[in-house]
Amino acid sequence: MATLEPGTKSVPLSITEDEAAVYDRQIRLWGLEAQQRMRNATIVVVRLKGVATEAIKNIVLAGIGKLVVVDADDVAEEDLGAGFFFRDEDVGEKRVDAAKSHIESLNPLVVVETVSDPSVLEGDALDKLLDGVDMVCVTDSDRNTLIRLNDACRRLNKPFYAGGSYGLAGYIFCDLLQHDYIAPDKSGQKDATKNVKNTATYVPLTAALQHRWTRMTRRQTKELNPAVVFTVLAVWEYQSAHQGALPDDPAAAAELEAIANRLISEADVNKQTLPSIPRELIDTMATTAAHELSPVCAVVGGLLAQDILKALAAREPPIANFFTFDGNLGGGTVVRMSMP
């Protein structure tokens, strides 16, 4: 199957009988129209680390039309743990080159294109790339890069996802602009239609980061597990202050703790629920944030893929809009950050 250049869009295709047979179970679940939307979707994934590996596996198996993977880095030994597309002999090779054939083997019906030139994410080249895709997913990147790419997506009206892991913690953020979807009618009325159309208005990451927790009750705050939320936000702030480097030393705990506590105070979090960031969480993050743990990548990447497919299918509400995973508890929560 021919590979398309970045910035080009193919003519919408109809699902063939052979494809319908392959995706029969999904068509029964989502309907033919939803599968058709996935079939014609082009998704770009930026950075091929553990979370992206898991997400790519799931969206490719589900039957998107085209996947563009952008990553300029080489395979390192530490990538072999969570990056199951890589082999020992791939160390030193470009990540995208090493992974391409493995991704293609998951589903030959999906066009896979790889880009190892980092300049494609800059200036006019970025606009050209985004113009040819339907959705953007940026993984394991620093806050400034996420904001820059999210703003570019906003400018060109492209839905945006971000996700990543920091040791035992992980996150997903999405900005789906103005998103329409079909969901079951929960009005409780006897004569209510089975499904209704809903619209969710999303905000960019810059607005989400200004979210305030003012007037939330102690119980409401506790249910959202704010400690993990502010740990992730503190890691972003730490990265920004250290030229993109993640904390990887017990000595980083004091700075990370000070950042997290400042962010908690600025966001006006209920002090009865979270007077300060738990020191044990900070100590764990200070020593593990720079490392990938396969189980965390599997959970976060799997949920990221599930939400991408949900958004494409326009069936059921996607994440709104910031999800965090706590590997210590084995659970996650969604915080509605600055969304109306």
From TrEMBL:
The keyword Metal-binding does not apply. One of its GO terms (biological process) is protein sumoylation. Keywords: Nucleus, Ubl conjugation pathway. The lineage of its organism: Eukaryota, Fungi, Dikarya, Basidiomycota, Agaricomycotina. Residues 23-328 form the THIF-type NAD/FAD binding fold domain. Coiled coil: none annotated. This is Ubiquitin-like 1-activating enzyme E1A. Pathway: Protein modification; protein sumoylation. Belongs to the ubiquitin-activating E1 family. The keyword Repeat does not apply. Its main location: nucleus. GO terms for cellular component: cytoplasm; SUMO activating enzyme complex. It is found in: Nucleus. GO terms for molecular function: SUMO activating enzyme activity. InterPro entries: ThiF/MoeB/HesA, ThiF_NAD_FAD-bd, Ubiquitin-activating_enz, UBQ/SUMO-activ_enz_E1-like.
